[in-house]
Amino acid sequence: MFLLLALAVISRPIAAAYYFSQFSMRQPDHDPCYDNSGRSVRCVPEFINAAFGKPVVASDTCGMRGAIKFCTTREGSDGVIREECSTCDADQSHLSHPASFLTDLNNPQNMTCWVSEPSLTYPRNVSLTLSLGKKFELTYVSMQFCNRLPDSMALYKSADHGRTWTPFQFYSTQCEQMYGKRPDVKIEKHNEQEARCTSSHTLAPAGNRVAFPFLEDRPSAISFEQSPVLQDWVTATDIRVVFSRLSPDQAELYGLTNDVDDVLEAANSTVESDGKERYFYSMGELAVGGRCKCNGHAARCIYDKNGQMTCDCKHNTMGTDCERCKPFHYDRPWARATAHSANACVACNCNLHAKRCRFDSELYKMSGDRSGGVCINCRHNTAGRNCHLCKPGFFRDPTKPLTHRKVCKECNCHPVGSIGSSCNQTSGQCLCKPGVTGIICNKCAKGFIQSRSTTTPCIRVAPLDEPVTPTARSCPKCRSSPKRLNQKKFCKRDYALQVHVVGREILDSGWARYTVIVESIMKKGIRGRRGQIDMWQEPHALSCKCPRVKVGRRYLLLGKDDPVDREHPGLLLNAKSLMLEWDEDVMDKVLRFSQRDRAGLCPTGDDLY
After folding, report:
1. Which part of the chain is the Laminin N-terminal domain (predicted)?
2. Which of the listed CATH numbers 2.60.40, 3.40.190, 2.10.25, 3.40.390 matches domain 418-461?
């Protein structure tokens, strides 16, 4: 579409510059960056002549060093070619031919022309530098010449306001001699940003107009939106035209060939001749067709308070070219808008508890490219990447919305009864010390009374027949944890299990309930089954640590198939139970005892010990 529009402009030059300059600053009737439902859509500024009214700097202008004559040849109505001579003088407005004529309102009936100083110096480079003011995505560069077409000239572009320059086209009838380039090299995907050299301008049917379409013959032009290479290729802030030779006969005037050695030898020579007045460059119009570069996030360009041209950015973007997201809109990365997606920047979700956020690429990938914003400095006692949690020492007030300033309430855990200052984020329940209860751990549990200790603020109330603190007299020798295991003790038990203790809970009744995993069965009995099962220890045995059971350890458990206690179903630790910590020594003995037991070699006797 860019190419078709460019060709239309070139074929109808009358008032084209004026036409395309009308709309660059116009406020659109409706915002084209959003559809009727308010959804973001791609939008682009209107196609204009980006050069209109812009400053052009010439390295050389006729009359800058005093009045001088220059001559042109024209074909009259009778078909006779006649030479017409004029005088140029920069000090007299009606005789001046400044570079500003190149970007003013063009009138084909009375064209104003920039003219360079006539000279026979060879080689002699003359440049014209056009500043567009900001980045544009260009479609074409068109040059209307007032006199003879230059034989050799180079076109350059800059995307950084003139700091660096890149060639985008060379014109010459002798490409290799003038620019060291083979003529009319084919452009393929691997060299889409290569500047070609051609002599096609000498055969152009458009008279004295030479036009360069940026995307012509570029293979990726059909998929321009998906080609960062071509997007960079058409981007420019400045255009420079460098004239190197008016015609090949310039060298012949000196009796030289076009060899490089001859050119260098004559570099500083000047020949006076009556034909000097005919050797100058002259251009009437320099037009640059394109759009203000806004990356699909603006429908027009405006002037900011400093007088600099900038995009009128939408979609929560900002910058001269809408090249970045606005502050706090970092939930997904900035991207250029396409026909399929506007790629609008999205605000971070901080639930009104933060004013700043950042983008995290790893979180974005983990979310399936949906969200990557991380809130910074969450307020109102909130925490988390979206300020959706309460910070330690606070919990969520279920009666208030997540966006409320007081959504997080202080835990107020009792300094003596609680283990720390943090509580459950949902219920507000503090983590209490043993024997302590209450939301904030400020009461003794049933069966406990308050003590004066800050370490154990609540102690158990012992039954009448049980002392509060077990003594050596109340805790006889523990036979449930023998130092040695023999064949007789193994044979007198109905089951032998390898168990892994994974949890413990002390009930209000004083009983301990352990959660164990039966990993191996050496002797089955009626309770011999693998998997998770409860194991019970009565209060007195628990207080006397007989046997002493630690969570996380593995044990060999031997016991009798006593009647099942309905209140304490599972494995029961009693006076008939044996429990030893599992190690390689115990494992060897158990395997040996188990083999003898299965072989019927167990000793007899009523003594369990």
Report:
1. 39-291
2. 2.10.25
